[in-house]
Input
Amino acid sequence: MTTESTSRRSLLAAALAVPAAAAGGTLLGAAPAAAVGPSDGLPTGIEIVVPWTGFTSLGRPGLEALNGNAPQARVVRIAGTDFLQMRGGVRCAKDNEFEGGSAAEDLDLVGVLPAELRPATTYVRGVAPRNSSGGFSTCRIEVTTTGKVYVYGATSGNKISWIQLDSLSAIWR
Output
């Protein structure tokens, strides 16, 4: 065997070429792999448990929707497992950024979820993108059983001035 035939690049290229060749087309022109459910338009095996719902409140004065996209959450069931998903985001007014701390405090409260979206038995934890002036460009988001959504990861030298929640998806129950 030559080095080229066993490299990761050649193995990946071969793995991608086989399904495209079998389908008789390119990957970009291929149809989605999942079948669509009969009435909801979602792939088979995915169902909405709680639809998109806005936070009941933001955590404190000086927080507003990021780019006009107010924070929302929903619960979906994928293959029998429930996931809390979020979208939208928050932006902090100047001199009102999240500054961090070792315990949940009002300064780190992003908002509150309505009762139907609150986890029943334990908190939910996920990761979301954030601004960064140095250091990490993600932050930890935790949702308590009382529905409070907290942000962690800010420091006095790297305050959080915005959080994008679109990528947050975590096991809910």
Q: What stands out?
A: The helical segments are 3-6, 8-23. DSSP finds two helices and twelve strands in the chain.
